[in-house]
Specification:
Elements lengths: L9 H4 L26 H4 L3 E15 L2 E14 L2 H7 L1 E4 L6 E10 L5 E4 L5 E4 L5 E7 L8 E11 L5 E4 L5 E12 L2 E8 L6 E2 L6 E11 L10 H4 L2 E9 L4 E2 L4 H12 L5 H14 L7 H15 L1 E3 L9 H7 L1 E3 H14 L4 E6 L19 E6 L4 E3 L17 E11 L2 E11 L8 E10 L6 E9 L5 H5 L5 H12 L9 E6 L11 E9 L3 E4 L2 E4 L21 E2 L4 E10 L4 E3 L7 E3 L8 E10 L2 E10 L3 E2 L4 H15 L3 E5 L1
Parallel strand pairs: 1-10, 16-17, 23-30
Antiparallel strand pairs: 1-2, 2-8, 3-7, 4-5, 4-8, 6-7, 9-14, 10-13, 11-14, 12-13, 14-15, 18-19, 18-21, 19-20, 21-22, 23-24, 24-26, 25-26, 27-28, 28-36, 29-35, 30-34, 31-36, 32-33, 33-34
Helix pairs in contact: 6-9, 7-9
């Protein structure tokens, strides 16, 4: 992606002719450390950032615009856990042009100061001796110590859209952020998730200075089923206007659309056209009768014959080189598919989006930081294709669905071609497309200690994710995947007579992944006098629970819509009756719109057979905090059923 968006620096930088000074060039920590008082409640927390400042200045140096970043943190450590978390303070010089200052110190409870400088930075290496990270090692930290870190660095400037997270899991006090730029450069800044807005300091006339001061930002722990990165308090910023030139709105999706169109939709040479036709012919997509068959044949052929690497490299997006060398990256594989679709007259739109678990696509802030991932939308099929080998048509990685994206479409007017870009929703698949179904026929052996379970498990869509990558892993990994698929309900017992159907990546999203086998296990039965206690709830598989004592902070956001169906047929032993059948009737169906989630179990008796039907469904990926209790009730209903034991007593 990064090579496809042209950055517009010329109209900005050429208006600065002299070297700029660092606005806070004399900034430093205080020789005598500040003292911060904490309330009794704050002292009970693991640690508290008692002061945090981050100052970002854009300035002209050595014939280029750069970014000076000053960061200053003071953290009070209140217990042994905090000491363990902070005895190594990680530093990052990655991407910096120059490190002007970098130092740290410990202020012990008795007032003793231990100061460290850049020469004390240590480097950790991996098993091959390659550098992994750098850190300050603090010695002699004790409860009540304060650690203080400060750096001043120069980085390349980024005007196209950047993100800074402020909130983390720990309480922060006295938080101050500033963005400083020459007076002719105006920035657009957007605070989200309850972070206060920046204000322009009108007392400063030589520079534009945008400031954010807040006395308190609560800590926010990572919660289950939560898009943590997307929900914490943070802000985005980008250059918006150059008043000296009169130009504004430098970075916008209209220009992005033109730039991406020029690269990804570029007309092929006659040689490339011939190579594309030959490639399509080899895939047999040209003789397929339906659009969906054509696209799937192309996808399978691309992903099985072209090596797709993660990194950028020379000619990675050159169609001729891709087809000659059989290697590309995801952008190149996307471009290859686009040209195959174009050759077959299949309408499509190129989609650019971002990971919704990290950033929500914000339509009124057209920063390039939301443009991270390509997908192809096939109009006729209402489905998305992505170049990653662990996905298939209609089932792109879940972080790129249930969000928005920039859709780029080629339009033709006579002999001319152009592009239109529009922000649209990226829909996910229906709940019925991702189902996990387990059918079990269960009996107790004559010894009354062994349970015989004939099991069939059938999964589709995202619930069959194993299917998407099973062709691309080593044989021992394939075996582990398959073993776990059936012994899901009892991982201590190895299934026998196992057979699989459709266990190939080419069937992902096309046919269900099916496995059948037999489990003989002692783990379902206990005895109490003349009673048999049978752990029938185990047959739906292990379940998570959400018995939460803390108040929920963030909305629930799950990966995809899904449903679980279970049919258990239990052969009641001769001469026994079940005493607690009513325990098998459960119904938790919160009053969400369109019956968006629920758990229902019910039973029936047929001769000597107990048949239990269990259905659990989630027809929404987003549950607001206000409705969290209802979501919790559904999840816990499944967990409660998993613990159910039926009592068999002699008649």
């Amino acid at each position: 992606m990064k090579n496809l968006i042209t950055l517009l620096f010329l109209s900005i930088s050429l208006l600065s002719f002299s070297q700029d000074e660092i606005y806070y060039k004399d900034y430093d920590w205080k020789t005598t450390p500040e003292k911060f008082e904490l309330t009794p409640e704050e002292i009970q927390k693991d640690q508290v950032t008692v002061s945090e400042k981050k100052l970002i200045q854009f300035l002209f140096q050595k014939e280029q615009i750069v970014k000076c970043v000053i960061e200053h943190k003071i953290i009070r450590l209140n217990n042994d856990k905090a000491i363990e978390n902070n005895n190594k303070f990680y530093v990052s010089n990655y991407g910096s042009i120059e490190v002007i200052k970098q130092k740290a110190r410990v202020i012990k409870p008795n007032g003793k100061i231990i100061e460290l400088s850049a020469k004390d930075i240590k480097t950790a290496t991996d098993e091959n001796g390659n550098p992994e990270y750098q850190y300050f090692a603090f010695e002699g930290i004790e409860i009540g110590s304060v650690i203080e870190y400060f750096h001043m660095m120069i980085f390349p400037a980024n005007f196209t859209g950047d993100e800074i997270r402020i909130q983390n899991q720990y309480l922060k006090k006295n938080v101050e952020y500033e963005i400083v730029s020459p007076s002719h450069l105006e920035f657009k800044i957007k605070s989200i998730n309850g972070l206060p807005d920046f204000t322009l300091d009108t007392t400063e006339t030589k520079y534009n200075k945008y400031v954010l001061h807040t006395s308190n930002i609560d800590g926010a722990e990572v919660e289950s089923s939560c898009s943590y990165g997307a929900n914490v308090k943070k802000f985005y910023y980008m250059l918006f206007k150059n008043t000296a030139s009169g130009k504004s709105n430098f970075y916008n999706y209209q220009d992005v659309t033109k730039n991406i169109y020029g690269n990804m939709f570029a007309q092929l040479t006659s040689k490339e056209e011939k190579l594309i036709k030959k490639f399509i012919n080899s895939s047999t997509a040209d003789v397929a009768s339906t659009t969906i068959e054509k696209v799937r044949l192309l996808e399978n052929y691309i992903k099985s014959t072209i090596g797709i690497q993660e990194n950028d490299f020379e000619n990675a997006e050159n169609i001729q080189k891709i087809l000659e060398n059989k290697v590309t990256n995801e952008d190149g594989a996307t471009k290859l598919m686009m040209n195959c679709l174009r050759n077959l007259n299949i309408n499509f739109e190129l989609v650019v989006t971002c990971d919704r678990t990290e950033n929500k696509f914000i339509s009124d802030f057209q920063g390039y930081n939301f443009l991270k991932q390509f997908m192809i939308y096939i109009n006729e099929l209402d489905s998305y294709y992505i170049a990653s080998i662990i996905s298939r048509l209609g089932f792109p990685p879940t972080e790129f669905i249930h969000t928005e994206g920039l859709f780029i479409k080629e339009v033709k007017i006579g002999e001319l071609t152009s592009s239109i870009g529009a922000i649209k929703k990226i829909k996910g698949k229906k709940m019925e497309d991702s189902v996990d179904e387990i059918i079990t026929n269960v009996s107790i052996a004559d010894d009354q200690t062994t349970t015989i379970v004939n099991i069939e498990r059938k999964t589709t869509g995202y619930k069959a994710v194993y299917q998407s990558f099973i062709d691309y892993v080593q044989e021992n990994q394939r075996k582990e995947i398959k073993d776990s698929y059936l012994n899901y309900i009892d991982n201590e017992t190895k299934p026998e007579n196992v057979i699989f159907q459709n266990d190939s990546s080419k069937y992902y999203g096309v046919k269900p992944l099916i496995a059948k086998g037999t489990i003989k296990s002692p783990n379902f039965i206990e005895h109490a006098g003349d009673k048999i206690l049978f752990k029938i709830g185990m047959l739906i598989g292990p379940q998570s629970n959400l018995y939460n004592s803390k108040e929920r902070k963030f909305p629930v956001e799950t990966e995809h819509l899904r449903k679980y169906d279970r049919i258990i047929t239990f052969e009641i032993p001769q001469g026994y009756a079940i005493k607690n059948l009513n325990d098998l009737n459960l119904s938790v169906q919160p009053s969400f719109e369109n019956n968006a989630m629920g758990f229902v179990s019910k039973y029936e008796l047929r001769d000597n057979k107990l048949i239990i039907y269990v259905n659990e469904w989630y027809n929404t990926v987003l549950v607001p905090v206000a409705d969290y209790k209802s979501y919790e009730d559904v999840v816990n209903a499944a967990a409660d059923f998993n613990k159910l034991v039926i009592v068999l007593q002699k008649k």
